[in-house]
Task: inverse folding
């Protein structure tokens, strides 16, 4: 019996729901969300979807332009590269490196960073203040620089890149969770439940956490965009995922040698990267706008 | 303010000191011989290596090793490059000049263009121009810098011929690098072709500056717009309007100074972002700055140069961040009280 | 007063900032080419990498040789490839004495060394300089022998180290070389880019200043250009040597702009930032040829690209494995994809241009089935993991080793061998090769002289494995003995046959897989002429000049 309650009661939507309501009113945000979902689907299914193996070399059609070009063939929708490999297959398979691995790195970093941040946010005094300053310092150093440092020690390889990105992202998560909790801690409702005698654990998980989900989601999009950019940048600099893996940054770097004659080998992977980053950034941006909107209207 | 400044500077010193500890640890973490990583002197150099062992107190405890390392660092003796055997410190200084030249220009450009555009967008909120500006800035923010740089090179340098592909200056202008900043170096030189060289240098400069400023520019537009929108909703503006002040006067006298407060606070962060892009941009444009030399040194496993570059970049970022914070606290006393850690 | 001054300063600072932005805007509208004197009187050569140093005696890489030999230094004699004979250089004439066991060189008079801010020569070239230059690497107790590494790869692997017993000064302008035996390749070796003459005077001065290592970093020679500055990863600046003993070069300045990316080199040539570039991209060659402003020239180059296996490491110590890998690679596809057909598939180690060359193809044909069988015989049914080291730079023999490695990687996957591609910065790459850290490497060889011996000894002999260019670390006494036999033979036809036997033996053992012999390409702006690419030697800018457009003011009506 739905909605059969006797008393008319307006249910306040949760903070996340409120933000969703704000966001779904924004067509750009929705478009970004669907694009990202599509990209994720492509990534997950890339093993079955790619028309060819990403490493298969067609010696008879080297540097074939994309199909919309007058010399293009429909067989290779995005054309082929200098070794005759199908670019569409490579870009699709590359999404595993350029979207999947960053996603994995973000999940790992979140799993490590959020508990530490929560602990730090709940602690107080000198300890917390010192940590805050320390995190400020770490976060003011660009993540790419820190990742370069890790690569310099360990050498360029996929697992080292992953390690570098995770290491770089953890302080960001700690910092954002820490400051989000810090902002909520002294709110009246938290004080009320504390006076009710709730345990710290209860306050953290049931009282504060629902109210910081929105900044957390924003932090995840931010971290994802950082991770994607950093992995691609490392690949571009030749210090990340090594060729012939179809990582987009690496593909872009490799394509530079023949950019004059076959510009599509540079433009298409770059565009894939751009589209991914754009959808994530638009999403993050609209979440931020929605949060602001919620705070303003509250 | 004095208490705050001292506190902040102390924190900076502690951070810089921590950075030196980190460097010391890294020397041990890097593959190969620790002393070689530190001093750039190879074991095969016999006598020099033994001398270095003495200088860096290698046989003694970690603590005295660190102390010696720290003293060397303070004295500007950052070891020598494993590749060129030249002093790291002496080589980094002109590179710093070159990097700063790009950075300052890009930062200035994004301030000069970004702030007015952001304010304009805010005034026209939800208007067509606002949407265009916001849409473009969000897309530009998502373009990976290395891709943008390549596209720009392809368009402006190769197709249109408006800019050279790479470098600071046509090398045939024999300008000795003193500060590393090519414009200052040209002005300092006594070359009879200074005018032509300056023109050539500017041709080399504009494209990297433009590409580099794309990120802070778009960010500043967004920050300014949001800050301005916040200010526009304040009561004191309503009061100002009701007193019959003209729109332009309100903008200049009331909105801008208050919006600037938020913008200035963000400058440090923008600088950090700029620094991570400058590494890539310098590499693409063969700009002889710290970023490109850092990447080169990673390729070459040249650890003394690598750490020298990392230390300089990190220190530069920290310094700028602290400087921005201090300026912010000095210029906007109203927000100062929340900076004293307790709330 | 003070405040006033401050504000004025403030204003000028702002003017400077705005001025620069205004300048940025204006500069963008101007065409990129200007015609100022220094630009007319200088040449920009976009070289492919940093030199290891400025003394070719210590170097092996073509980059170092191209940057130094023909520009900074001279040799006792030169080899004229067109006339196929030796021509006098620092030695005016020479004669063989004692049945070819002693050579006497008469030096040219009034040959001036470079006069630079750090060194003013006190005298012209004489016998002391020749002695100094040769004894540095000949005598282990020479004060300069151990300076800057003490490795003299060319002299070790070419056998000159053992051949020359003594260098003697007869008088100020006469020098004798005492040899341990007759050797037909002696003069050829002295004419190579490695046998340069340094200044003994400068050596003395540096010893006094306790800076001997500067000898190879701030070089002094007798060549057409003198050293000004080297900024790593950026440029090498040379200026005209006004007192050059031959006709002084046309250009006031010669700048090597270090541009490691082949793509950037090509684009910079298109935009006119480079006047001359080495190793242009083969794919783009046709594109370049169409352009009116750019000419592509090619020169026959005695080279071989090969895939060398480090025989000091298992499983590459087994000839069966090496043969299997050689059979697994589709070299025809490599010629098409990497060289765009601008190379000839190698049929042996010697290139077509060598007089000992035969048509007979002794290399391992592409046959993945056979390769699998061979691997099985060697006990590797399951295949194995290996690394392919690919050079980061373009060379005449290999325009793109990384791409080649990817092709080979795909071929190897067919026979179950999983290959990983490794690359380092070029000088780092070579240092690690010297230490033998590689499994296999894609590299090549350019001959220093026309003798067929130069295709085997420097890359496959035991001596070269110990301290030279033998990247396979293959040391086979039988092979070395065959080489000695061939050198002792004097009848050309017999020698050719002996080299055939040597080639057959080496290919059976398969320490390396020959890939291709290629032309050496170079591209330059059409207003540049006279850049020389001798087959056995480094690029030379001595005769290079800029053809100025016919004076426009005069031509216009």
Result:
């Amino acid at each position: 019996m739905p909605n059969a309650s006797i008393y008319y009661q307006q249910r306040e939507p949760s903070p996340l729901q409120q933000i969703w309501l704000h966001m779904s009113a924004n067509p750009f945000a929705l478009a970004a969300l669907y694009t990202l979902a599509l990209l994720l689907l492509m990534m997950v299914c890339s093993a079955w979807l790619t028309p060819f193996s990403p490493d298969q070399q067609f010696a008879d059609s080297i540097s074939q332009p994309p199909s919309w070009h007058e010399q293009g063939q429909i067989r290779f929708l995005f054309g082929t590269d200098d070794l005759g490999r199908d670019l569409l297959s490579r870009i699709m398979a590359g999404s595993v490196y350029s979207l999947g691995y960053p996603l994995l790195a973000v999940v790992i970093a979140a799993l490590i960073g959020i508990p530490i941040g929560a602990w730090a946010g709940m602690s107080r005094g000198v300890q917390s203040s010192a940590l805050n300053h320390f995190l400020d310092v770490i976060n003011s150093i660009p993540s790419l620089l820190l990742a370069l440092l890790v690569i310099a020690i360990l050498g360029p390889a996929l697992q080292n890149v992953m390690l570098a990105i995770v290491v770089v992202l953890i302080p960001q998560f700690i910092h954002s969770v820490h400051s989000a909790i810090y902002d909520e801690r002294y709110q009246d409702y938290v004080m009320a439940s504390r006076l009710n005698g709730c345990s710290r654990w209860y306050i953290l998980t049931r009282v504060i956490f629902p109210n910081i989900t929105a900044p957390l989601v924003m932090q995840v999009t931010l971290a994802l965009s950082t991770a994607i950019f950093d992995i691609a940048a490392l690949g571009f600099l030749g210090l990340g995922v090594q060729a012939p893996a179809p990582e987009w940054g690496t593909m872009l770097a490799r394509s530079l040698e023949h950019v004059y004659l076959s510009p599509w080998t540079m433009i298409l992977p770059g565009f894939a990267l751009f589209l991914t980053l754009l959808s994530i950034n638009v999403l993050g941006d609209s979440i931020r706008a929605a949060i602001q909107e919620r705070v303003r209207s509250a | 303010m004095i208490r705050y400044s001292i506190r902040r500077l102390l924190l900076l010193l502690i951070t810089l000191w921590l950075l030196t500890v980190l460097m010391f640890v890294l020397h041990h973490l890097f593959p190969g011989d620790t002393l070689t990583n530190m001093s750039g002197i190879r074991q095969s150099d016999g006598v020099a290596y033994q001398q270095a062992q003495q200088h860096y107190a290698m046989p003694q405890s970690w603590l005295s090793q660190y102390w010696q390392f720290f003293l060397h660092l303070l004295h500007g003796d950052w070891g020598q490059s494993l590749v060129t055997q030249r002093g790291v410190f002496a080589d980094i200084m002109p590179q710093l000049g070159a990097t700063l030249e790009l950075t300052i220009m890009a930062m200035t450009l994004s301030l000069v263009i970004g702030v007015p555009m952001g304010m304009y967008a805010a005034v026209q909120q939800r208007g067509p121009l606002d949407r265009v500006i916001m849409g473009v800035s969000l897309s530009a923010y998502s373009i990976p810098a290395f891709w943008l740089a390549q596209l720009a090179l392809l368009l402006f340098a190769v197709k249109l011929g408006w800019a050279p592909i790479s470098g600071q200056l046509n090398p045939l202008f024999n300008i000795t690098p003193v500060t590393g900043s090519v414009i200052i170096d040209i002005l300092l030189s006594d070359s009879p072709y200074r005018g032509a060289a300056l023109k050539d240098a500017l041709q080399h400069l504009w494209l990297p500056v433009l590409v580099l400023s794309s990120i802070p520019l778009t960010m500043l537009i967004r920050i300014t717009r949001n800050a301005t929108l916040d200010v526009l909703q304040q009561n004191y503006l309503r009061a100002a309007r009701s007193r019959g002040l003209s729109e332009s006067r309100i903008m200049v006298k009331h909105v801008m100074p208050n919006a600037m407060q938020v913008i200035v606070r963000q400058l440090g962060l923008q600088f950090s972002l700029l620094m991570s892009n400058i590494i890539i941009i310098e590499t693409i444009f063969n700009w002889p700055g710290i970023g490109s030399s850092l990447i080169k040194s990673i390729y070459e496993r040249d650890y003394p140069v690598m750490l020298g570059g990392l230390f300089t970049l990190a220190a530069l970022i920290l310094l700028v961040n602290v400087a921005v914070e201090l300026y912010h606290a000095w210029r906007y006393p109203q927000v100062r009280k929340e900076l004293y850690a307790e709330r | 007063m003070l405040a006033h001054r401050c504000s004025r300063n403030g204003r000028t600072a702002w003017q400077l900032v705005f001025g620069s932005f205004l300048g940025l805007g204006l500069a963008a509208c101007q065409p990129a080419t200007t015609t100022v004197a220094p630009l007319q009187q200088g040449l920009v050569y976009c070289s492919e990498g940093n030199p290891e140093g400025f003394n070719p005696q210590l170097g092996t890489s073509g980059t170092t040789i191209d940057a130094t030999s023909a520009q900074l230094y001279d040799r006792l004699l030169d080899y004229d490839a067109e006339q196929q004979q030796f021509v006098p250089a620092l030695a005016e004439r020479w004669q063989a004495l004692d049945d070819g066991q002693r050579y006497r060189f008469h030096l040219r008079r009034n040959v001036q060394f470079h006069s630079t801010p750090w060194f003013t020569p006190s005298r012209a070239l004489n016998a002391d300089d020749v002695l100094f230059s040769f004894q540095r690497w000949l005598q282990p107790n020479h004060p300069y022998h151990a300076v800057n590494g003490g490795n003299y790869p060319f002299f070790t692997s070419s056998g000159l180290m053992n051949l020359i017993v003594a260098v003697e000064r007869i008088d100020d302008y006469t020098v004798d070389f005492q040899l341990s035996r007759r050797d037909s390749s002696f003069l050829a070796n002295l004419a190579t880019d490695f046998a340069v003459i340094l200044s003994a005077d400068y050596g003395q001065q540096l010893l006094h200043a306790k800076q001997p290592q500067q000898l190879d970093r701030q070089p002094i020679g007798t060549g057409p250009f003198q050293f000004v500055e080297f900024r790593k990863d950026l440029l090498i600046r040379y200026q005209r040597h006004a007192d050059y003993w031959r006709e002084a070069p046309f250009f006031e300045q010669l700048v090597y702009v270090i541009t490691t990316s082949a793509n950037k080199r090509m684009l910079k040539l298109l935009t006119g930032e480079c006047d001359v570039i080495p190793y242009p991209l083969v794919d783009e060659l046709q594109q370049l040829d169409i352009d009116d402003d750019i000419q592509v020239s090619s020169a026959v180059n005695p080279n071989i690209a090969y895939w060398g296996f480090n025989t000091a490491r298992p499983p590459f110590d087994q000839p069966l494995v090496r043969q299997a890998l050689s059979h697994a690679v589709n070299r025809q596809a490599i010629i098409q994809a990497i060289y765009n057909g601008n190379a000839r598939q190698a049929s042996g180690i010697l290139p077509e241009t060598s007089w000992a060359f035969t048509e007979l193809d002794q290399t391992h044909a592409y046959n993945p089935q056979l390769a699998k069988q061979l691997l099985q015989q060697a006990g590797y049914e399951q295949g194995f993991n290996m690394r392919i080291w690919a050079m980061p730079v373009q060379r005449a023999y290999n325009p793109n080793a990384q791409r080649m490695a990817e092709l080979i990687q795909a071929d190897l996957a067919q026979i179950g061998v999983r290959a990983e591609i490794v690359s380092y910065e070029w000088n780092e790459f070579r240092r690690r090769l010297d230490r033998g850290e590689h499994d296999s490497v894609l590299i090549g060889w350019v001959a220093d002289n026309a003798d067929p011996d130069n295709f085997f000894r420097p890359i496959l002999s035991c001596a070269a494995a110990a301290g030279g260019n033998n990247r396979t670390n293959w040391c086979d006494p039988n092979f070395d003995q065959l080489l000695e036999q061939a050198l002792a033979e004097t009848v050309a036809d017999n020698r050719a046959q002996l080299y055939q036997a040597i080639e057959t033996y080496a290919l059976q053992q398969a320490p390396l897989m020959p890939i291709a012999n290629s032309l050496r390409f170079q591209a330059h702006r059409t207003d540049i002429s006279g850049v020389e690419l001798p087959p056995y030697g480094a690029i030379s800018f001595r005769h290079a000049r800029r053809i100025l457009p016919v004076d426009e003011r005069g031509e216009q009506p």
